[in-house]
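Co-fold these.
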Amino acid sequence: DIQMTQSPSTLSASVGDRLTITCRASQSINNWLAWYQQKPGKAPKLLIYKASSLESGVPSRFSGSGSGTEFTLTISSLQPDDFATYYCQHFNSHWTFGQGTKVDIK
Amino acid sequence: QVQLVESGGGVVQPGKSLRLSCAAFGFTFSPSAIHWVRQAPGKGLEWVAFISHDGNNKDYADSVKGRFTLSRDNYKNTLSLQMNSLRAEDTAVYYCAREGHAFDIWGRGTMVTVSS
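Predicted complex below.
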């Protein structure tokens, strides 16, 4: 089975910071990678699909890149609403999630 | 309004059964594959099960294979997750999610607690 590993597990940041979260697959998954945001007590929300495609309605400060085994989610300027946990997901007949990255206030 | 609504969660003893439902509103249900994802308290997301748009293809995580069964009714825009032989480690919030651009529509979830 393909394993998805995110880093870091926790990230402390301030409003306005540029953030990068990394997700690594244990073998190549081409661009079959999605990113989600989850806030406490809420369902996850799709941000990025196919590694770099922005889901409709998601602010442009979110971007994704990568292919093969290494992927990144970047938030260009962190906003108060962005403090949350972020998950990557292999998406193509296997749907494994990474363990999550919690973004909290520095 | 486009949404999925889960129901059927509750407290159940180990070894017992529970049936969760997921109802779709505001979008065309029959062409949509649907997944279940769960989240144990304080933990990350775990994919649980998949059912194709027509119900002919299903897949399950190893952790639930042989115990959980998915079915769907495209006339009623609903699907069900039958959970048998429940274990303490099945305790989680269970979400249903539509497969579109990845999992693009999620329900709010329903809590399942397995405890004696």
